[in-house]
Amino acid sequence: MRYTALVIAAALTMAASAPAYPHNEDRVGGEVGIEIVSESGGTFLRIPHRDFWKGETRIIKQYLEAMRGENYGIVIHNMTSERIGVVIAVDGRNIISGKKSNLRNNEAMYIVNSYESGEYDGWRTAGDRVHKFYFTDMADSYAVQTFSDSTAMGVIAVAVYREKEQPQPRYEQEKRNYRPTAPSAESAAQGKAGMARDESAGTGFGDERYSPTIRVVFEPEGTPIQKTLLKYEWREVLCRKGIINCREEARNRLWDEDAYAPFPPGYQRD
Questions:
Q1: In degrees rounded to 5, what are phi and psi of residue 189?
Q2: Which among 43, 92, 119, 229 is least buried, having the fewest CB atoms inside 10 angstroms?
Q3: Quick check: 7 pLDDT over 70?
Q4: What is each CA distance from 268 to 145, 196, 260, 261, in whole angstroms?
Q5: How far is CA 231 from CA 9, 96, 130, 157, 238, in A?
Q6: Is the whole model's pTM more than 0.85, yes or no?
Q7: How many CB atoms lie within 10 A of CB 210?
Q8: Burial of 16 (0-12, 13-18, 19+ CB in 10 A)
Q9: Rounded Cα–Cα distance for residues 76 and 158 (Å)
Q10: pLDDT score recorded for residue 2
Q11: DSSP string of 1-46?
Q12: How many Å apart are CA 169 and CA 178, to the nearest integer?
């Protein structure tokens, strides 16, 4: 069965090479990099957690320091010789359809051509419109406000799929009146079952931005070659959990002391 997937019309070109996967070089001839970028040009601290293989899928888990109110984008670098499909979920919701995501191959996905990159920075509400991602408190997040769903709060997830067969790409210009399936409201009871604490970071539904797409035919394989899961938290939460060390280092009485010798008490100075 073939699926319709979306391609951002203006992709970012990338011509860099990368080392092959060590697990199985015959599966894919390069790597797929995931980067979280700030709209303001800042960087987000990332802390490795786990990197392992589950069957034919590489699983990468990392922590990321979220910054309140900061707009951000998800950049996919496809450093392989073939185009790939990427299912992207933020706070458990597919960023194209808004539906609850399990990162499966039958979900709405974006296509990234070989040796190119694509940036995805918002919830897609039309074929040529997105609403920007920004870090916010859980109660203000799109997932909670729209679906009362916090079961995957604070996670940016990307599943990378190879194409099952390699026909010549057949591109179709997006119809101007195209609209993806509208996110449907789900029962509050379902979402609240996994309600996180109020201190959790989430992603909001920000300002609208023009973002044209085209549709392509893409048949993904059944199993992703890679899953990247980024758990983003506020700095104070990362500190409390011991993910990062936020304590001041104790002064060393021999190394750090560089003052002159003090006068004795009551000493008469000239």
A1: -65, -40
A2: 43
A3: no
A4: 72, 66, 17, 15
A5: 29, 20, 23, 9, 10
A6: no
A7: 8
A8: exposed
A9: 9
A10: 54
A11: --EEEEEESSPEE-----PPPSS-TTT-SSEEEEEEEETTS----E
A12: 21
Task: Kindly state the helix (H) or strand (E) to which residue 265 belongs, with its residue range.
Answer: none
Other Cβ atoms within 10 Å of 187 Cβ, number = 10
The answer to which of 50-54, 80-84, 254-258 has the lowest mean pLDDT is 254-258
In tens, the pLDDT along 22-47 reads 334 334 446 899 999 999 888 899 99
Task: Report the 10 Å Cβ neighbour count for 178.
Answer: 14
Instruction: Please measure the distance between the N-terminal and C-terminal CA atoms of the chain and give it in whole angstroms.
Output: 95
Residue pair 266/98 in contact by the 8 Å Cβ criterion: no
pLDDT top residue among 177 and 189: 177
User: In the predicted model, what is the mean pLDDT of residues 40-55?
Assistant: 92
pLDDT of 178 strictly over 60: no
Per-residue pLDDT band at 172 (split at 50, 70, 90):
very low
Burial class from Cβ neighbours inside 10 Å (0-12, 13-18, 19+) for residue 247 reads exposed
Q: Are 57 and 120 within 8 A, CB to CB?
A: no
3-state secondary structure of 147: helix
For residue 169, how many other CB atoms are within 10 A of its CB? Answer: 13
Q: What is the mean pLDDT of residues 140-167?
A: 92
- The domain ranges of the chain are 3-241
DSSP string, 194-238: TPPPTT-EEEEEEEEEE--EEEEEE-B-SS-SEEEEEEEE-HHHH
Residue 245 neighbours by CB distance under 10 Å: 9
